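User: Quick sanity check before I run a bigger batch. Here is a single chain. Can you write out its predicted 3D structure?
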Amino acid sequence: MPTLDVPGAQLYYEVTGSGPVLLLITGAPADATSFVGMVPILSQRYTVVAYDPRGYTRSSLDGEPVEQRVEVHGEDAHHLLAEVTSEPAYVLGTSGGALVGIELAIRHPEQVRVLVAHEPAAIDVLPDGAEWRKFFDDVVDTFRSEGAFPAVRKFVKVVGVDPEEQPEPSEPNPETMAVMEQMKKNLELYFEYQLQQFTHGVPDIDELKRAPTRVVWAGGSGSHGLPCYEAAAKLAELYGEPLIEFPGDHQGVMTHPDDFAKAIEAAIAGK
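Assistant: Done. Predicted structure follows.
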């Protein structure tokens, strides 16, 4: 699979199908495998481009990790789109990836025909954003004192999972151990260098409204009351458009890939 050199990093990306380009941007600490269930459906109509964010899984950083910024990741998406097409593209961003998509549409509006922003993690836009900020700070403190996986057990509250109901992990086989080791590396980058940085601040909705890009705001039908759903609803209100409900919860791209892919196609078509 191809890679692309960008300032400070090398991006791993995958291109599947034919037709207009549809760029899929995941939220960290996930990677392009988040979309594996949707790609066979979407690639029947689109040239689907998915990639691992800088520093995650198959995308490398030049040198030691540094604080990850939405603006830099937005430029990564800009360079990747410039590599694969000269035409405006369709873009789906989910969670932190939705923040990257918003940044891309603001800085390079000529590259984005339609942006589907699924549950952007814009915590500071919420009335209780300060409480969630304290929660994230506690997660990072847990990571620093206890390690990546104990921090995850706390962090899953954001997507509606009760940490107390999570089973204790069983003894892994060698294949599982390899996956867990990569996951651990991703989580270390995420908790130490990205979680607090990405979720600080509110996207510039006024600037986004000035762009020619059509923006579709989406939240999972199973995410009501959770922070990223509520953030999507608030941003949609500020933008002046209704929130569209997509199948599943914050992780609907993985749990409901067929229906989620159909929802993307309908959103792009304006249905």
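The mean pLDDT is 92.

User: Great, the batch can go ahead then.
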